[in-house]
Design brief:
The chain is mostly helical. It has 6 helices and 4 strands; from the N terminus they run αββαααββαα. Strand 1 and strand 2 form a beta hairpin. Helix 3 crosses helix 6. The longest helix is centred in the last third of the chain and has 33 residues.
């Protein structure tokens, strides 16, 4: 039997997703739902991951890196754009405020790691589609 959520429950969820919360010292906002999820994280790394996905579109993350510039591993790779500095600073401020022992270097490392993970996920998905396409021909 399929049940549906009561209309007032759905309305509350929609309002929480649309409501914005200011984070950091700048005028950077994030959905209140994302903020509540980030605050419930038990580690700085977890909070960074949630806030990063709430502040930036996946497409932006895929074509960017922390500071911008060329790849250190592949000099022939496409030059990446830097992420928005105001948003990065707001993210860092929020994490350090929530986790007093969090170091800025660890926050930056978490951001870079998450971006790298996203790229590998996309690459894996692309390779899977390519292999499936070969077998379907």
């Amino acid at each position: 039997m399929l049940t549906t959520a009561p209309p007032n429950m759905l309305m509350n969820l929609m309002l929480r997703v649309r409501a914005q919360v200011k984070i950091g010292n700048d005028d950077v906002t994030i959905s209140s739902h994302c903020w509540e999820t980030a605050k419930s994280c038990t580690t700085p790394n977890g909070m960074v991951r949630v806030l990063l996905m709430g502040l930036f579109d996946v497409e932006v993350l895929l074509k960017s890196n922390l500071k911008g510039g060329a790849s250190k591993l592949d000099p022939n790779a496409e030059r990446r754009q830097a992420l928005n500095l105001r948003k990065l600073q707001a993210l860092q401020d929020a994490v350090v405020k929530q986790f007093l022992r969090a170091k800025e270097a660890d926050v930056r490392k978490s951001i870079s790691s998450r971006i790298c993970e996203l790229r590998h996920q996309v690459k894996r998905k692309f390779n899977l589609y390519f292999v499936l396409d070969l077998f379907l021909i």
